[in-house]
Amino acid sequence: MVILRALACDYDGTLASEDRLGPEALAALRKAREAGLRLVLVTGRTFFKLTRVCEHLDLFDGVVAENGGVLYFPPTATIRALAPPRRRGSLPSWTAGASPTSSGTSSSGRRGATRPRSARCSPRPGRTSSSSTTGRR
Q1: SS3 readout for the chain
Q2: Scanning 2, 50, 79, 109, which has its CA 20 to 30 A from the CA of 41?
Q3: What are phi and psi of 72, to 5 degrees?
Q4: Which domains does the chain have, with CATH numbers?
Q5: At residue 111, does pLDDT exceed 70?
Q6: What residues have CB less than 8 Å from 37, skipping those under 6 apart?
Q7: Of the candidates 40, 54, 43, which has an alpha carbon nearest to the alpha carbon of residue 12?
Q8: Is 100 a residue whose pLDDT tops 60?
Q9: Of 91, 15, 87, the residue nearest 56 (C-alpha)
Q10: pTM of the model as a whole
């Protein structure tokens, strides 16, 4: 059995501030690497935009970019697209005609964005659906 010890970190707001890795983040990443951890950078940014702001991609064993749509392996400079690129501004088909602020009515009679029942959030355990929408117990 192979056991892989890895540390996966988000870029924006976790490792980076104002588009740059700070000295504390770099020191922590180097310390993790010295401890034998594989480093994985995870971001919703496009790979191209990430390469323009992150000067230390070579510090990572892998990069997951574009919300999982692109994998990049710095040690071998290998890029692998896992999904076709989306057109700018395109949304999943279940959001067609709706937006988070739309005032339409969904098939369940609720107002707001429509989406498939499987994508709906369930109330937290111990709460009824009416109390979870009002924020009161």
Answers
A1: CCCCCEEEEECECCCEECCEECHHHHHHHHHHHHCCCEEEEECCCCHHHHHHHCCCHHHCCEEEEHHHCEEEECCCCEEEECCCCCCCCCCCHHHCCCCCCCCCECCCCCECCCCCHHHCCCCCCCCCHHHHHHCCC
A2: 2
A3: -135, 135
A4: 6-81 (3.40.50.1000)
A5: no
A6: 5, 6, 7
A7: 43
A8: no
A9: 15
A10: 0.61
| Residue with the larger pLDDT of the pair 52 and 102 | 52
What percent of the chain has pLDDT above 90?
Answer: 54
pLDDT value at position 103? Answer: 42
Structure tokens at 51: 């390469």
Q: For residue 58, what are its two tokens?
A: 């070579």
Q: pLDDT grade, residue 12 (50/70/90)?
A: very high
